[in-house]
Design brief:
Helix content: 25-40%
Strand content: 15-25%
InterPro entries: Cof, HAD-like_sf, HAD-SF_hydro_IIB, HAD_sf
Protein name: Cof subfamily protein (Haloacid dehalogenase superfamily)
CATH architecture of the largest domain: 3-Layer(aba) Sandwich
Low-confidence stretches: none
CATH topology of the largest domain: Rossmann fold
Order of helices and strands: EHHEHEEEHEEEEHEEHEHEHEH
Structural class: alpha/beta
Number of domains: 2
Pfam families: Hydrolase_3
Shape: globular
CATH class of the largest domain: Alpha Beta
């Protein structure tokens, strides 16, 4: 991004980045987003969250258009409440990945995001209050023919970093493996599906170059976007791998770190 040129697109993660620790958007952050929009920038949420967990936040923030959800597997139209595109994990590949996970991490529980809901096995004990209305318990996530937007694996004995290290070589070429900070939680998508690959598709459609993008993130699933953007900022509270790989820094999510950068860029 050349000096004096305003970014044409703001790509921001939500949890641990745009949202504070209370999972809220502060007035300062809302105002900074509005200033960026007034200057002509596109605002795109780029998140691990499913569509159902994004729409209300976008309305609160005054953000319209589309959001990239489920780590890049979904492009979601905020106004229409419609999934525009979805990039699914093949069921056969997902089953092979699940067997590799079970061999490397005995006792794991599995769940899948379908785009509109969650199917969870008994061993997958992660129950978010906001998910309960959309969650169905199943004996196996592979029993039906529901679309697999994201395969989720939960361990009660290993950290997410340990889980990635244990399985990434075993599933190479079959799936993308990452995490977004959930305790003992892996997030698995189709090969090539990342936040950055989907953002690149949007940018090409809109005629926006990577150098015209400013991005913000805090977790390993944000690394691809931070590398893709002309200016990628790690939050002060970011995961150690993100801090090590990202040159630019901003304040923490509890200090309105995204707003601090946007205010300098857009006034």
């Amino acid at each position: 991004m050349s000096a004096g040129t305003l970014p044409r697109l703001v790509a921001t993660d939500l949890d641990g980045t745009l949202l504070n620790s209370s999972r809220a958007i502060t007035p300062r952050t809302r105002q900074a987003l509005q200033a960026a929009r007034a200057a002509g920038a596109e605002i795109v949420f780029v998140t691990a969250r499913p569509p159902r967990a994004v729409r209300a936040l976008a309305a609160e923030a005054g953000v319209t258009g589309v959001a990239i959800c489920s780590n890049g597997a979904i492009v979601y139209d905020l106004a229409a409440d419609e999934i525009v595109t979805s990039r699914l994990l093949d069921r056969t590949a997902a089953n092979t990945v699940a067997q590799a996970l079970a061999a490397a991490l005995p006792g794991i529980g599995l769940a899948i995001e379908t785009g509109r809901g969650v199917l969870a096995e008994v061993a997958y004990t992660r129950r978010l209050v906001e998910d309960l209305a959309y969650l169905r318990e199943v004996s196996s996530v592979f029993d039906g023919d529901d679309p697999i937007v994201k395969l989720l694996a939960q361990s009660h004995t290993s950290t997410a970093d340990e889980m990635v290290a244990a399985v990434v070589a075993r599933v190479e070429g079959l799936a993308e493996v990452t995490h977004s900070g959930g305790t003992g939680l892996l997030e698995i998508s189709a090969p090539g599906v990342t936040k950055a690959s989907t953002l690149d598709v949007l940018c090409r459609e809109w005629g926006i170059a990577p150098g015209e993008v400013v991005a913000f993130g805090d977790m390993p699933n944000d690394l691809a976007v931070l590398s893709y953007a002309g200016a990628g900022y790690a939050m002060a509270n970011a995961h150690h791998l993100v801090l090590a790989a990202t040159e630019r820094r901003t304040l923490s999510n509890d200090e309105d770190g995204v707003a601090a950068v946007l205010e300098k860029l857009y006034g």
